[in-house]
Amino acid sequence: MYYNKYVSVYHHSLFFIQYIFFKIIGLSPWTISDFEIYKKNRKVNNDQNNVCKFSYFGTFYNVLLIIVMILITLYSSYYERLAVNRIDSLLSKRTISSIETVAVLVALVYLSVYIFRQKLMIGVFNRLKIVDSKLQKCAIYSSENDISLHIIFILNLLLCSSLMVYCAQRLSLLDIIIKCTPTVISTWLIIQYTMLLNMINKRFKSINYTIGKIIEVYKTENRPETVCISRTTLFRGSLIHDINNVKYAYIKLCESCEALGDFFGFSVLTVLIFVGAGSVFVAYFGMLPYFEKKNPGLGIIESIPMLWMNFSIFMLTTYVNKIIKQSNETPTIINLLMDRGTIDRKVEKELVKFVRDLSYLKVEFTAFDIVSLDRTLMGTIVGTVATYVIILIQFRPSAA
Predict the structure, then answer these.
(1) Residue 396: left (phi > 0), alpha (psi -120 to 50), or beta?
(2) CA distance 62 to 25
(3) Distance from C-alpha of 59 to C-alpha of 67, rounded to nearest angstrom
(4) Are 352 and 240 in contact (CB under 8 A)?
(5) For the range 29-36, what are the long-range contacts, defined as Cβ-Cβ under 8 Å and sequence gap of 24 or more?
(6) Are 44 and 129 in contact, with CB atoms under 8 Å apart?
(7) How far is CA 231 from the centre of its chain?
(8) 344-380 in b/e burial notation, b at 16+ Cβ within 10 A?
(9) How many CB atoms lie within 10 A of CB 325?
C-alpha cells in the first residue's frame, strides 16, 4: 500500500481497520482499491481511476452470511431457545420470541440492500475522489484535519465490544446471535451513514473555505497599483478556472448526498421504527417497578443497547444538520464577499452564475422520503415514545 509523506501510518491503519470491520459484518461488500478519500491530507494523483469497485467476493460473503443467519434464526425459532428474563401480560414469551426473530430477518434485509444496491455506494466513493481532485486543482485549497471519524468509530466499537462481553457472560452463543444481531447491524449501519456524512461535511467546509480565499486573494492581487494588466488578466483566468472546479465539486457532493439518501432511506426508516418501538418497551419496563412491586423492572445494563441506538441516531441527525448548514452557507459566502469590494466583471459573472446554479440544488436527507433526518427527528422520537409509554401505563393489564 502506498504511503505519502502527509499520511501517518496511524491514520491509514485506522481506516483500514474500519474498512475490514464493516466488511466482516456485511456492511462493505465492495472493494476499495486505495484509501485516498480517507486520508488526513488528501492528494489525488489520478482522478480517472475508480477508488471503489464492485467485489464478487464481498457479494458472495454477504449472501453466505445471510443464508447462515436465516438458518440459525429458523433453528432458534423452531426450538424456542430464546431466553426471556421477564414475562409480562403485555408481552408473552412467544411474542418476545417472534419480535426478535422478525428483527433478525429485517436486519438481514439491510445486508441484502448492500448486495443489490452497492453500485450507489460505489458511485458515492468515486464521486468523493473526483471532488478531491477538482478541489486540489484550485490554487488555494485547504482541507481541515479532523479525527472525528476515528472517535466515532472507536467509541462505538468499545460500546459494541462491551455489549458482546456482557451478553457472553449471560447467554449462549445462539442467543447472542439472535438477540444482538439486529442491534449491532442496525447501529453500525447508522454509524456508517454518519461517517460518510462527516466525510461530505468536511468537503463542503473545504469548498466554503476555498471560495473565501479565492475572493480574498483576488482582491489583494487585483489592485491596480500592484499588478500589471497582463498579470491581472492571467490571474483572472486562473480564478475562473478555480470557480468552475469548485462548482463542479459542489454539484458532485450534492449528487453524493442524494445517492446516500437513496441508499440508506428504507434501512434508516425501519431502524427508526425499531428504535422507537424498542425505546417504548425499555421505558415501560423501566417504570413498572414504581407501579408494581413484584415486577423487577428493567436494569441499566439491559437498556444499553437501545440507548446506544438512540445515541447513534442523535449523531446522524447532528451531521445531517452540519451538512445542510455548510451547503446553505456557500451562496451566502459568495454574496457577502462580492459585496465587500469591486470584482472583475468576468469573475463576477462566473460567481453570479455559480449562485444561480446553487438555487437549483438543495441538500436534504430523509428516511425513504417520509421522515426528515434533521434535529427535529429527535424531538419527534422523544414525544412519540413518551406518548405511548403513558398509554401503556394507563391501560396496562394485570401481570400474568
Answers:
(1) beta
(2) 9
(3) 13
(4) no
(5) 29/55, 29/58, 29/59, 29/61, 29/62, 29/114, 29/115, 29/118, 30/54, 30/55, 30/58, 30/118, 30/121, 30/122, 30/125, 31/55, 31/57, 31/58, 32/125, 34/1, 34/2, 35/1, 36/129, 36/132
(6) yes
(7) 45
(8) beebeebbeebbeebeebebebbbeeebebbeebeee
(9) 13
Find, among 295, 274, 294, the residue nearest to 285 by Cα: 295
* Sign of the dihedral defined by the CA atoms of residues 336, 337, 343, 348, in that order: negative
Residue with cell 440507548: 307
Map grid coordinates 442467543 to a residue: 175
Residues 6+ apart with CB under 8 A from 136: 42, 43, 44
* Residue type at 212 in one-letter notation: G
Q: Are 305 and 179 in contact (CB under 8 A)?
A: no
The answer to whether residues 153 and 195 touch, using CB atoms and an 8 Å cutoff, is yes
For residue 372, what is the enclosing H or E element?
strand 371-372
How far is CA 13 from each of CA 19, 44, 114, 144, 326, rounded to the nearest angstrom? 10, 19, 24, 20, 29
Render each residue's pLDDT in the chain as its tens digit; 400 residues: 233 333 456 667 778 888 899 999 999 999 987 554 445 444 545 555 678 899 999 999 999 999 999 998 888 776 654 444 444 555 566 667 777 888 888 999 999 999 999 999 999 999 999 998 888 888 777 666 667 778 889 888 998 888 888 888 887 888 888 888 899 999 999 999 999 999 999 999 999 988 887 766 655 555 444 444 334 444 556 788 888 899 999 999 999 999 999 999 999 999 999 898 888 888 887 777 666 655 555 555 667 788 889 999 999 999 999 999 999 999 888 888 777 666 777 878 888 888 888 888 889 999 998 999 998 998 899 999 889 888 888 876 654 4
